[in-house]
């Protein structure tokens, strides 16, 4: 795809974000539950074939796929899980070790994070995608946190998570970093 000037690409992405958020909100509870079950199954199958010792996960916001059943299964298998913490508006994410069931609190940005825990560098990350394109570029909420995180060395394996309907056409920008894999319900 052609890279648009930054202002045109930002405007295009803003309109697309609104459309994708509306589509997510319109999902019926039954459709959402079926999609989440399919994504959990695909994630567990993929990790069975491609095991990792440590995985950065996310706590769902804005109707993102809820993968807690997979988190519970992975923790039971001995995979070390961690959740992202936002340390600053322009900083990459940090990850804090977490076990499902541990207390979460809201941070200054409104994200649910562990109350305490060890900072870790996960081998792989599950990255929620509001949208994604054929080049495996992710459309998020526009903060750039995951792009800054993936720009660090060593770069973790980046596994996008999205509803299949989130596949969209949009142009990449210079700061966008392609994900290694995207798991959907389709």
What does the model show?
The chain is of the alpha/beta class and 186 residues long. The chain is 31% helix and 22% strand. It contains four helices and eleven strands, in the order H-H-E-H-E-E-E-E-E-E-E-E-H-E-E. The chain has helices at residues 6-26, 29-49, 68-76, 145-150; strands at residues 54-56, 80-86, 93-98, 104-106, 112-114, 119-120, 124-128, 131-132, 138-139, 157-161, 181-183. The strands form three sheets. The protein has a seven-stranded mixed β-sheet with strand order 6-3-2-1-7-10-11. Strands 4-5 form a two-stranded antiparallel sheet. Helix 2 runs parallel beside helix 3. The two termini are 24 Å apart.
Helices and strands in order:
Blueprint: H1 6-26, H2 29-49, E1 54-56, H3 68-76, E2 80-86, E3 93-98, E4 104-106, E5 112-114, E6 119-120, E7 124-128, E8 131-132, E9 138-139, H4 145-150, E10 157-161, E11 181-183
Parallel strand pairs: 1-2, 1-7, 7-10, 10-11
Antiparallel strand pairs: 2-3, 3-6, 4-5, 8-9
Helix pairs in contact: 2-3
């Amino acid at each position: 795809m052609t890279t648009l000037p930054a202002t045109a690409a930002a405007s295009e992405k803003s309109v697309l974000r609104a459309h994708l958020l509306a589509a997510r909100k319109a999902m019926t509870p039954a459709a959402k539950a079926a999609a989440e079950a399919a994504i959990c199954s695909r994630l567990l199958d993929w990790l069975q074939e491609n095991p990792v010792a440590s995985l950065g996960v996310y706590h769902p916001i804005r109707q993102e796929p809820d993968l807690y059943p997979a988190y519970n299964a992975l923790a039971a298998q001995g995979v070390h899980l961690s959740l992202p913490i936002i340390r600053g508006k322009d900083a990459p994410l940090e990850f804090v070790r977490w076990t499902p069931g541990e207390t979460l609190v809201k941070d200054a940005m409104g994200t649910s994070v562990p109350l305490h825990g060890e900072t870790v560098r996960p081998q792989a990350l599950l990255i929620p995608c509001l949208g994604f394109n054929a080049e495996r570029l992710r459309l998020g909420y526009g903060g750039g946190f995951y792009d800054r995180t993936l720009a660090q060395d060593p770069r973790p394996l980046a596994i996008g998570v999205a509803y299949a309907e989130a596949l969209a056409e949009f142009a990449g920008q210079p700061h966008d970093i392609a994900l290694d894999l995207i798991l959907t319900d389709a």
